Amino acid sequence: MTALRAFAIAALAIALASPGVAGQSTRMASLSPPIVIGHRGASGERPEHTLASYELAIDEGADFIEPDLVLTKDNVFVARHENDITGTTDVADHPEFAGRKTTKTIDGVAHTGWFTEDFTLAELKTLRAKERLPQLRPDNAKYDGLYTIPTLAEVIALAKKRSQELGRTIGIYPETKHPTYFASIGLPMEKHLVAELKAAGWDSADAPVFIQSFEVNNLKLLHTLTKNRLIQLMDSSGGPADNATPSYAAMITPEGLRAVAAYAWGIGPNKDMVDTGEGTPTTLVADAHKAGLRVHVWTFRAENFFLPASLKRGADPKGHGDVDTAIRRQLAAGIDGFFTDFPLIGATAREAFRAGK
């Protein structure tokens, strides 16, 4: 860690510390928008969905850490971006699991590889995580083979432990991945997730938890099962895999947003639905707020590959551009929170915005 980066983290720690927060570590009273969400942890700097990635995100100032949730054969929630673990673990290097490679159709798309639902937790724990985007994040690939696949219980324990240590609330922001698919193979997610959060003492509207999904019907079911805050994810194209509504475009009309507000606390749109990065915002934030919904956008990444032309710096796709400006533009547009692979950049931009700089 460079001296400058270490100083930035230390300065943020001071800015984020609030007297009396430690005693409120299981409630959201100390968290105020706009919130910074560590997307799969600090996934721009460590292999995603590892305890090391979540830990770094917390150190860098994230208010929430985001575990994408899939299920094992023995019905345990683990944190992986997809149930297909071919690209994020060393499973292909394990000859004992060669026979489990298969092809499955998930949400209408064929995938060939290895899948969490075909492994017990004990078997998954013999695997090690690896970087999903090694061409863009070669420094992350240096950590390949060091970390195991964490369970939801381990993520919750980390958030509680660090909340106590830091004296500020660290929340979790789980996403149910492919809930309709998992229900179709006898592994429904909703009651299981609610029970695990309740066991952690996080079963109220002010618990440090947001539950998110790109699907609709599982959020509607969760709305009947829990008081936890629910976030309807949306993309700039396509629609929910459960076909509960024709398209995400239909969901961001005034009528569509009112319908979402009947079961969700907020929306999680692709950031390009708010501002493509060129500084001209749409009306989505204002429309959502009018419907009583908060807005948490995804996902800010620092690499040129992910940035609009005006914010790229140099020609190297893995080089870092001006993501700080992209974040500040959306903060100015009124978003209530944002996901980022680089929480230090996000938290620094947020603190400067709060200070009026």
UniProtKB/TrEMBL annotation:
Species name: Sphingomonas panacisoli
Class of the enzyme per the UniProt entry, highest EC level: hydrolase
Any one Pfam family match given in the protein's UniProt record, by short name: GDPD
UniProt keyword annotation of Signal present: yes
GO molecular function: glycerophosphodiester phosphodiesterase activity
Keywords of the record: Glycerol metabolism, Hydrolase, Signal
Enzyme Commission no: 3.1.4.46
Name under which the protein is recorded: glycerophosphodiester phosphodiesterase
Organism classification: Bacteria, Pseudomonadati, Pseudomonadota, Alphaproteobacteria, Sphingomonadales
GP-PDE domain span: 34-330
Signal peptide span: 1-22
Source organism superkingdom: Bacteria
Gene3D superfamilies for the chain: Phosphatidylinositol (PI) phosphodiesterase (3.20.20.190)
GO CC, one annotated term: periplasmic space
GO biological process: glycerol metabolic process; lipid metabolic process
Catalyzed chemical reaction(s): a sn-glycero-3-phosphodiester + H2O = an alcohol + sn-glycerol 3-phosphate + H(+)
Family: Belongs to the glycerophosphoryl diester phosphodiesterase family.
